Amino acid sequence: MAAKVLTIKPEHLRKPAARVARLLMRKRLAVADSLLDKLDDPEAVHEFRVAVRRARSIEKAYRPYLVDAVTPKLRRRLKDVVAATGAARDTEVQIERLHQRCADPRPHQRPGFDWLEQRLQHRLAVEYEALRATLAERFRLVHKPLHARLKARYADPGPSFAEVTAGMLLEVAGEFALRCAHLDRDLDEGPLHAARISGKRLRYLLEPLTAAFPQAEALVGSLKVLQDLLGEIRDLQVFGRELAEASEEAGAARMRKLIEMSLTLPFDSPELARGRQQDERAGLMSLARELQTRQGDLIEHLRARLRDGAAEELVAGVRALARDCAHAGMPQSDPQPARDNAG
């Protein structure tokens, strides 16, 4: 289930940036608050994570206009809430990837697949237990005072929401264009991650505008295609590191088990013979090869889209939207009274 995207109305465009930013933050945090009693459901945890992450993205984007409402202490607590859900999300993605493997494992690979799934399921259970024990209270600790401060009345001098947002759209779109151009030369993990984060910032600026500007929705869709590619590549990189760590642990555990069996069983014991044949690392290596193949395919797909100008076309659309947004934020001039030309 896709998380609900909250948008602004056209009449918000001319209102002070600080006022609209507080409204957006408050609405996103309210969505998260409504999910606190459902955190046993992984889908609710995902929606909670997205809602809090979007609230934090508003705070980061409009920080100069939110200094009165969001104190550094509340900002840190909000960041901690977002971080607390990250590990479980990575584990869920890895379990899903394991279930979507290209082919059923061969008999000699099955021990590695089964061992890794047990390892990931155990970790996920521990992570969810920690979330259920602490996440709701940690969120309430930040939400109660933050909600009150976001709802308070302020003088709100300064530019309109549309004017500020137009400037940020130009800035972030320019950064995204540079990040994507850099990928033509360097597709290492660092540049890929930087492009993914830049795209996420741009998307979180565009999404609230989709009700006020019809073209914004198409831009979000185009951006999501690139984001999905960058995101899956990132997930594969994280899973690759997991496999490397798992192979070390599996090898050590297997050797320890064989030594213990050798100390207690005869040399020609069938159980000891089976233990020598059962090696989880074969399955882990098979998974690693599948990940490498999939990652290579995704990178080629990403390169093809970038060569075809997907990023440039998207950025051009965002710049046009920024111009429309800036124009929409201009004060409406009072109509001039008609002249009486009668003599």
TrEMBL record:
UniProt cross-references to Pfam families, sorted A to Z: CHAD
Database matches in Gene3D superfamilies: CHAD domain (1.40.20.10)
Start and end residues of each CHAD domain: 10-304
Domain of life: Bacteria
PANTHER family registered for this protein in UniProt: CHAD DOMAIN-CONTAINING PROTEIN, SLR1444 PROTEIN
Designated name of the protein: CHAD domain containing protein
The species this protein was found in: Thioalkalivibrio nitratireducens (strain DSM 14787 / UNIQEM 213 / ALEN2)
